[in-house]
Amino acid sequence: MSKATRAPRPQRRADRPLSASNVWATVLGGYIPLILATFVIIAPLLWMVLSSFKQPSEIVTTDIVVLPGSFDPANYIQAAHQIPFLRMLLNSTIVTVIGASIKLLLAISTAYALVFVRFPFKRTIFVAILIALMVPPQVALLPNYVLIANLGGLNTYWGIIVPGLGTAFGTFLLRQHFLALPMSVIEAAELDGAGHWRRLTSVVIPISMPTIATVALVSIVNEWNDYIWPLIITTDSSMMTLPVGLTMLRNSESGADSYGVLMAGAVMVILPVLIVFAALQRYIVAGLTQGANTG
């Protein structure tokens, strides 16, 4: 005797994807916080870009003027003439390329050693890296300044670059990613006679490109935007970087009439970083996710 099949229970209206309760929950819990967070992040940047084209009368006014009367690049031309812009752009490029490259190489080699090389006190070194991750870099400003000044590094490229070569964040992120790599691949390369250098360059780095690109982008942004240390270590305008140049621009352009010029200078400082971010942004989410999967 066959058992009678029970008819499926009709889906309640509240459980349907397009029911009123689900739509309201999605809007209140998803779209509104997303729009508010995006507005808080984007609004100051958009206001800065629009203000860089405005005349002083359009910025210093009791009425809110969103769009400039015309997209006249006069503020950009004036900012480029007030400071040695090309020289500062060259300085920022040299410091960023050399500093970020060395920082990335050190992070990759250190993370590889912490995962794949056997040596004493490895755990202690990793704990020291974690402690460095928690310490704000500002506490090392005075010791670094005394050391670099005594070594003759004032107003030099190496004086700007050397104190920031260590990256605890990049080392930690790459170590966590290397721990998640399939050990069978590494062991197969070792059985084929590959040494540490060949395993690093032929196996580990090619399959870790998203995480390496993430560390590279973070290093580039940090080196480009670094303000406090280059401001302290350089007194010669020919060795200053672009963020320090904004201070010179602020000192030379005092008063409310200078806001448009300052906004134009700020846009010129952040524009190269935005271009690099646009080129590498597809690696960022994948790299951060892979690096955070293994604890």
Automatic annotation (TrEMBL):
The keyword Repressor does not apply. One of its GO terms (cellular component) is plasma membrane. It is a multi-pass membrane protein. Keywords: Cell membrane, Membrane, Transmembrane, Transmembrane helix, Transport. Its main location: membrane. The chain crosses the membrane at residues 21-47, 94-117, 124-145, 157-174, 200-221, 261-280. It comes from the Bacteria. It comes from Nakamurella antarctica. It is found in: Cell membrane. GO terms for biological process: transmembrane transport. Residues 89-280 form the ABC transmembrane type-1 domain. Belongs to the binding-protein-dependent transport system permease family. InterPro entries: MetI-like (IPR000515), MetI-like_sf (IPR035906). This is Carbohydrate ABC transporter permease. CDD domains: TM_PBP2.
